[in-house]
Design a protein that fits this description.
This protein has a domain at 1-121. Helices cover 72% and strands 0% of the residues. The protein is mainly α. It has 38 helices and no strands.
């Protein structure tokens, strides 16, 4: 059906163009022979093609442009006729005898243009006559194009100030009146199009109208270009007349487009000074008009005006722009009761951006906007509309982007209240934006109040706002979110120990609500932040003034114990054990033996009761040995208890090779090179001998189960331990013992049952080269290694 209509239109257009070109040909021939009467006759016939009602605006425009080109040539011919002595007044009268009104008026406008240029009559009189005459065409499409032609031929002939057609004192009023009258009539014709034809073609008509809107809008552009229209005239006459037409037409398409035109074509300073008049119209517009977009564009233009014209800022304060805009938005929302949440939030988002650009120092304005937004959202629950959600994110992001400082946003009391209306996922997005801002700008958050406010903002990442199944979460996204929280915790700092301790307590309160899945991410940074404070207070045992409330390392360690205990609910024993050992080392540096012993005790309990995986046990044992070796705070009794436990754990590992490595590592617990009170050579040797026995047992088991003795790597590793203690001066490690071990390894390597192992061979060869190197050093070292035969 539509294809058939389009084909018919093409035929009608082709017929119209053919008729136009044919008459134009005869018109040109008459013009070439200076035959005025024939030129008028054929031009009238040519213009009769524009009387068609069969074409759509798009096709009619093609026909009109061809006629327009011919009319320009006809206008040149009329000028030449006037030069040749033809009376332009007579010509003006003559064209009015054309048979049909539409060709008559096109010819009248064309001659009128020449008439004005001749200056034989005042421009204002001719323009008034033409604009009145054009009322003869009331068909919307034909009337719009006719008046558009009038506007086109007259725009450079208006009696403006400084124009060659300037008349008396009221010349500006005349020019203005002409354009306004033409605009009013064109708008009426444009609106009338909406009500012609059947209801089922409403969408088609709206599309056609949108194609024609620029014809109407050009009048406002012409008005803005009139030099004589100053602020006073604009305020007193132009704007009220235009707005009156906008309101009275009661057409949503026209109202939206014309309001947008007013904002775009007239200067920003005019908008600022006439803000009250302009804003007063918005509540009177049709409910279906997209007011949010127009108002947002107005605020954006004013914001840009303030940004490029610093001298204009006092004007904004003088006219109370923020207050007027805020009131106008409230009235618009009130007038449009069914305005969706998206619309209201968009308006407040634009107002907030306006406030931040024009009045960046007035945080109370920003908070007022957020408060108004909360008022609009109240009673709606979580916002589910994705468009509205996006606008709320834009609203909340604006202060952070403007100030590059989350601390400033924390001063806005209504900020967290707006966030409460976001759904869980968007709340997380917004929380991430907040954290990223802190990271990017290296923002220092140094007080408990600010930390409390900050964690209230990011609670979407700290805890589950509603019951959420963890298996629904994307694992990588979750890790990234929690790692960002961990980085944030590390950035919280205050040089005052008392304030820092309060910050740590506040953070602890929040992260402990996070549930078992989050704690492994958030507990470690808090522990290390606390240990940093411990290092700061290192050496301070008691407050010299006896203040019980004062922060001391002991007090922090008590808190740390409670924080790490929370991991037992996860459970995350491996992580908890590492943290206990870190705390034990810090307590050692603070000379707090009971505290260090307690942390070790907790680590041992975890090892015994929670860590059952053999690989995890091996890692844990070596961590315990390494940490215990560095401890110097323990007395003989406590140290013996802990080392005895450790060696016991080492000997009970599942696999013999793992037992062997752990036991020979324990030898370092009895001989610490830089501590004279911890050099028990005999017990160190016992550990090595025990390790040898376990290594030997491992060889025998391998022989029984696999038929081969396996690798000698363990023996070579033990040999290296022997050499270490021999070099460090352990009197129990003798040349004979080393020599015996070398011979044992050599024999094992030559045995038929030993599995060939190139790595072990290279390791042993490297060890022997080292002995040889030490022998060749000379001096005390060479003398010491001399008796060893390799």
């Amino acid at each position: 059906m539509m294809t058939g209509v389009a084909e018919d239109e093409e035929k009608w257009l082709a017929a119209g163009i053919a008729g136009l070109q044919q008459n134009a040909f005869y018109m040109h021939r008459a013009m070439d022979s200076n035959n005025l009467r024939d030129a008028l006759k054929y031009s009238a016939q040519m213009l009769s093609e524009l009387r068609t009602s069969k074409l759509s605006p798009h096709k009619y425009y093609e026909l009109y442009m061809r006629a327009f080109d011919e009319l320009r040539k006809l206008e040149i011919f009329f000028k030449e006729e006037a030069r040749r002595g033809c009376s332009i007044v007579d010509l003006y009268e003559l064209v009015q005898h054309a048979g049909n009104i539409l060709p008559r008026l096109y010819l009248l406008c064309t001659v009128g243009s020449v008439y004005i240029k001749s200056k034989e009559a005042p421009a204002k009189d001719i323009l008034k006559d033409l604009v009145e005459m054009c009322r003869g065409i009331q068909h919307p499409l034909r009337g719009l194009f006719l008046r558009s032609y009038l506007s086109q031929v007259s725009r450079d002939k208006l009696p403006d100030i400084g124009s060659e057609y300037e008349g008396d004192a009221d010349t500006i009023m005349d020019a203005m009146e002409f354009v306004l009258q033409n605009f009013t009539e064109m708008n009426k014709l444009w609106v009338r199009m909406q009500h012609q034809g059947p209801a089922r073609e409403k969408e088609k008509r709206e599309k056609e109208r949108s194609e024609l809107r620029d014809l109407v809008g050009k009048n406002l552009h012409v008005l803005s270009q009139i030099e004589g229209v100053d602020l006073e005239l604009y305020k007193e006459t132009v704007l009220p007349r235009v707005l009156e037409q906008v309101v009275n037409c009661k057409d949503d398409i026209a109202q939206y487009y014309l309001m947008d035109c007013i904002i775009q074509v007239f200067p920003d300073e005019y908008h600022l000074q006439t803000l009250e008049i302009l804003l007063g119209v918005f509540p009177q517009l049709q409910p279906s008009v997209d007011i949010k977009t127009v108002l947002s564009q107005l605020m954006e233009r004013l914001s840009n005006y303030a940004a490029i014209s610093a001298e204009a800022l006092p004007e904004f304060l003088q006219v109370e722009a923020f207050s007027k805009l805020n009131n106008a938005i409230g009235k618009v929302i009130e007038a449009q009761a069914d305005m969706p949440v998206f619309g209201a939030v968009t308006l407040y988002s634009s107002l907030l951006k306006f406030s931040l650009h024009v009045h960046p120092d007035r945080l109370d304005y920003a908070d007022q906007v957020l408060g108004s937004c909360v008022k609009q959202l109240s009673g709606r629950g979580k916002i589910e509309d994705s468009k509205a959600t996006k606008q709320i994110v834009a609203l909340l992001s604006a202060p952070i982007e403007k100030y590059n400082n989350v601390v400033t946003a924390l001063k806005l009391s209504n900020y967290p209240r707006v966030m409460e209306y976001l759904d869980n996922e968007t709340n997380k997005v917004m929380a991430t934006v907040v954290i990223q801002s802190v990271m990017k700008n290296n923002t220092h958050i140094t007080t408990v109040d600010k930390v409390e406010a900050l964690f209230e903002l990011i609670k979407g990442l700290i805890k589950d706002l509603e019951r959420t199944a963890y298996d629904e979460l994307d694992e990588d996204d979750f890790k990234e979110e929690q790692n960002s929280v961990a980085r944030l915790i590390q950035m919280l700092h205050n040089d005052d120990p008392e304030e820092m301790f309060k910050i740590i307590c506040t953070v602890r309160k929040h992260i402990l609500t996070g549930g078992p899945k989050r704690l492994p991410f958030t507990v470690p940074p808090l522990v290390f932040s606390s240990l940093k404070l411990v290092r700061q207070l290192q050496g301070q045992e008691e407050n010299p003034f006896g203040d019980e409330a004062a922060t001391t390392p002991k007090k922090i360690f008590q808190l740390l114990n409670q924080i790490i205990e929370a991991l037992s609910n996860v459970p995350a024993p491996d992580l908890a054990l590492r943290l206990y050992l870190q705390c034990a080392e810090a307590a050692n540096d603070c000379e707090l033996e009971p505290v260090a012993y307690e942390f070790f005790t907790q680590a041992y309990i975890l090892y015994e009761e929670e860590i059952s995986d053999s690989k995890a046990q091996i890692t844990a044992i070596h961590l315990i040995i390494g940490t215990l070796q560095r401890m110097h705070v323990f007395g003989v009794e406590n140290r013996d208890t802990l080392t005895h436990k450790t060696t016991g754990y080492s000997a009970k590992l599942l696999k013999k090779p793992d037992q062997c490595k752990a036991v020979y590592a324990c030898s370092h617990l009895f001989w610490v090179d830089d501590q004279d009170n911890m050099k028990d050579g005999e017990r160190a040797l016992l550990c090595l001998k025990r390790a040898l026995r376990i290594a030997n047992a491992a060889q025998q088991m391998s022989n029984v189960t696999r038929g081969s003795a396996g690798s000698v790597t363990l023996f070579v590793e033990i040999l290296n331990k022997y050499l270490y203690f021999f070099e460090k001066g352990n009197p129990q490690i003798t040349v004979a013992a080393i020599q015996s071990l070398i011979e044992l390894i050599t024999t094992e390597m030559q045995s038929d049952t030993t599995t060939p192992d190139s790595t072990a061979d290279a390791f042993f060869a490297s060890t022997l080269r080292y002995i040889q190197f030490q022998k060749q050093k000379g001096g005390a070292v060479g003398e010491k290694y001399g008796p060893i035969k390799v």
